[in-house]
Amino acid sequence: MADPNATLLRELPSIDRLLNHGRCAALLTRYNRDYVTQKCRAALDRLRADIRQGKSQLLNDDAIIDQVEAWIELESRPGHIRVVNATGTILHTNLGRALLSQAAIDAMVAVAGKPVNLEYDLAAGKRGKREETLQQLLVDLTGAEAATVVNNNAAAVLLGLNSLAQGKEVIVSRGELIEIGGAFRIPEIMAKSGAKLREVGATNRTHPADYENAINDKTALLLKVHTSNYKVVGFTAEVTLEQMVAIGRKHNLPVMEDLGSGALIDLSKYGLPKEPLVGERIAAGADVVTFSGDKILGGPQAGLMVGKKELIGKINRNHLQRALRCGKLTLAALEATLRRYRQSPNITEEIPTLRAFTRSVDEVRAMGQSVLPKLAAALGDGYQLSLQDSTSQIGSGAMPTEELPTVVITVESTKQSANAIAKRFRQADPPIIGRIQEDRFLLDLRTIFDADDLIPQLRSE
User: Fold this and answer.
1) Which residues contact 298 (CB under 8 A, 6 or more apart)?
2) CA 17: distance to chain centroid?
3) Cβ atoms 428, 79 nearer than 8 A
4) Which domains does the chain possess?
5) Among the listed residues 91, 403, 94, 116, the one whose alpha carbon sits nearest the alpha carbon of residue 263
6) Strands 184-185 and 303-307
7) Please, are residues 90 and 446 in contact by the beta-carbon 8 Å criterion?
């Protein structure tokens, strides 16, 4: 008696037969032949394995090509997709931090598909330096003598330490040995830079004398780190930047400050807590200040460095700078963002991050009132929705103890848990990311500027 499995295996189509099928021919106009062939071979391999395990299969060519098309469609989906941030964290590291302004987006598009004078001096007709494009804007905005940029603030700190203190000691207060996201810590960054950490003071109290007593012939730099992602309260003492600068001048040592977020405008004018301004730190005497592009600044991911011309020049001559440099898309977006800071009559309306910080609760509430009935209709029966007052946070280590008043939509159900509701929203198109608080699913409206963003295509339950 013939083996039925052997018969099924013989009936499988060849690769060539599948590739010559009309539907595969259509695939070959969109994808290269090797890729489509690989998917056909994988489909046939799976069928053979199923047949050998005694599983009956529909063996017509169309069914096999259905599988091939499904795999190709799945693999063609981008790994990073748009989501709606309704978490209440404005600068959400996991969701991409700052949203770019339209000016920054337009600038990126303008250079993306064309050659640009990235490192070409048009006036001189010879090679130029890419960081010079941004230098004048940063000098004008901060009052520094010079500036440069790398791919993020951790890189800026690493580059600064390596350029100014490799093989020598850097003095830091124990209260400023911070850890940022992803378990990156100041001591580890310092070790990678080749500088040697010299801790002074205690976690909660450090005094000028602690720095004075630690300085020796191996000291190369005094480092101040803005504790932007936590606060020490109670019995505390901190050495101010001005005091550190005085100590540095006395001993002929440069002072570098890692501001973390870094702000170019005074947010206290809009009812927010006062954050150290980069320009103020330069005016106070800091020799080098580093800060992020994609936090409070509201630009692309980048590490900005401003300070004394001699020190920035030394940093730019470091070969490590090339390894940490930004590409043309980042530079274009950052330049456009900084130019709006320099020229805009209303910067808080142009930079989405600043707009989210400063919009009124009344505006946020009006957004909620307009979207509530539409969202209820999209969800269908079985859900109870309401508007409630709540608070948002800045995020990304900026102003950790400060909260902004906001309005949230609470979504509850007698049939589903908060986790199940959250999952349903994550499966929407586009995915909507909210938060769970006290076993309720919340959609924070502070970062929602278009009501339609909260009216998704939801999967049926």
Assistant:
1) 98, 99, 100, 101, 337, 351, 352, 353, 354
2) 48
3) no
4) 4-75 (no CATH), 84-92+356-454 (3.90.1150.180), 102-347 (3.40.640.10)
5) 91
6) unpaired
7) yes
Are the beta carbons of 367 and 409 closer than 8 angstroms?
Answer: no
Only one residue has tokens 């898309």, namely 329
Please report how many Cα atoms fall inside a 13 Å half-sphere around the Cα of residue 13, on the Cβ side: 19
What CA–CA distance (Å, rounded) separates 335 from 325? 15
What percent of the residues of the chain are helix, what percent strand, and what percent coil, each to the nearest 5? 45, 20, 35
The pair of three-digit structure tokens given for residue 361, joined into one six-digit string: 């609760």
> What is the tens place of the pLDDT at every residue in 182-204?
566 788 888 899 999 999 988 78
Q: Strand 120-121 and strand 126-127: pairing?
A: antiparallel
Residue range 274-321, pLDDT digits in tens: 889 999 999 999 999 999 999 999 999 999 999 999 999 999 999 999
Amino acid of residue 143: G
pTM score = 0.90
* Residue of 196, 181, 152 whose CA lies nearest to 323: 152
CA pair distance 218, 220, nearest whole angstrom = 6
The owner of tokens 């269908």 is 380
C-alpha to C-alpha distance for 189 and 178, rounded to whole angstroms: 11
Q: From the CB of residue 74, how many other CB atoms can be counted at a distance below 10 Å?
A: 8
**Distance (Å, whole) CA 49 – CA 51:** 6
Residues 6+ apart with CB under 8 A from 283: 143
Q: 40 is written with which tokens?
A: 């056909």
Specify whether the backbone of 237 is left (phi greater than 0), alpha (psi in -120 to 50) or beta. Answer: beta
- The SS3 of residue 126 is strand
Residue 71: CB atoms within 10 Å: 16
Contact 326, 249 (CB under 8 A): no
C-alpha to C-alpha distance for 131 and 309, rounded to whole angstroms: 13
Confidence at 116, pLDDT banded by 50, 70, 90: very high
